[in-house]
Amino acid sequence: MYSSLAYLQRCSSSPSPERGYPEISVSDEPLRTEAAMVAALTALEAKPLDLDTLRKVLAIGLPLRGQSFWDRFNRALEDRRIDKDLRRAYRELCHHQALDYVLMLLRYHRPGFDDLPPQQRTNLVIDACAHANELLDALRKLVSFLEHGRANYRGAAATKVVGKDVEAAVLRDVDGLTNREIGERLGVPLPATFLIKADHPTVRKMVKRGRRALEAALGEDGWKGTREL
């Protein structure tokens, strides 16, 4: 990767008629491959962070050269002079891994980052986290739209139902519980006909739906392998 000021890239993969080799251009736009790598890593490593809480935490100082936020957080929490509000802010923020990822990006793309004045470094961390928040929100909206046709679909109720179905399938196939035992564990009342038919159709359907969900997520072989562990 090059600095954010200039990116070298081939204009074309085919040789130039005049020069006989692919031409090189300089652009202020990042390479698509670099943007893709940053997007993928941010989706995996970053977390949505509350910027107001972040400002409070950064007010007492940033990691020194070679130091991580994890190191800084631990040392700060050992300091008895830190008041309760700031300690609470540290614990609320909690995603030190996400901050260390942002710090890694800044140090990589700006080799002189650790030599900048503290306020400038603080502003860069906050701005980088704000952009990461925007990217994560955009990714959530895109995936939500692709899966549900709506950008802001949350589906909390549906998620809760699927969660119970998955739990029912795990209890049946992994823990070996009977449908009646699963119903007792998950708070599903026995049907009035249970003593006659010895069947619990609600739990039976939950287990079936849960198996489908697990097979869709892990693949049929993947779910089978998990059950056999």
Overview of this structure, please?
The protein has eleven helices and two strands; from the N terminus they run E-E-H-H-H-H-H-H-H-H-H-H-H. The protein is mainly α and 229 residues long. Helix 2 (51-58) runs antiparallel to helix 6. The protein has a two-stranded antiparallel ribbon with strand order 1-2. The protein starts with 6 loop residues before the first strand and ends with a helix. The protein folds into three domains: 1-30, no CATH class; 44-148, no CATH class; 156-227.
Topology:
Elements: E1 7-10, E2 24-27, H1 32-45, H2 51-58, H3 69-78, H4 84-93, H5 96-109, H6 118-148, H7 156-173, H8 179-186, H9 194-197, H10 201-218, H11 220-227
Helix pairs in contact: 2-4, 2-6, 5-6, 7-8, 7-10, 10-11
